[in-house]
Amino acid sequence: MQFTKRLREPIKRGEITTSVRIWRSPRVKAGRCYRLEEGFVVIDAIREITLEDITPSMARRSGFAGLADLLKTAKHGPGERVFFVEFHYEPPT
Predict the structure, then answer these.
(1) Do the beta carbons of residue 21 and residue 71 sit within 8 Å?
(2) What is the rounded CA–CA span in Å between residue 58 and residue 61?
(3) What is the pLDDT of residue 33?
(4) Most exposed of 8, 41, 49, 92 (fewest Cβ within 10 Å)?
């Protein structure tokens, strides 16, 4: 799971623990670890939602100023399905 550079430090500090993604199909699975620089993002949950389900609060919790800011970054390729991903960061051991 890739994150823009400006989100990486807040993720490592535990300030960002959610992400909204627009994909063709889920790209992550709950319980799996994905590398984030020297540590890992561990997926706690993923659920499919609609664009209408995205709230300004969800956008802010995902590290964005608002809905428009989030939607500029959330869409990856030709996907149309919306996923809300909850995760936590695990530093290297």
Answers:
(1) no
(2) 5
(3) 97
(4) 92
Q: What is the dihedral of CA 42, 44, 48, 54, to 10 degrees?
A: -90
pTM more than 0.85: yes
Structure tokens at 18: 């959610």
Q: Report whether 5 contacts 34 (CB < 8 A).
A: no
In eight-state DSSP terms, residue 16 is: -
Domain 5-90, CATH:
3.10.400.10
Give the H or E element holding residue 21: strand 18-23
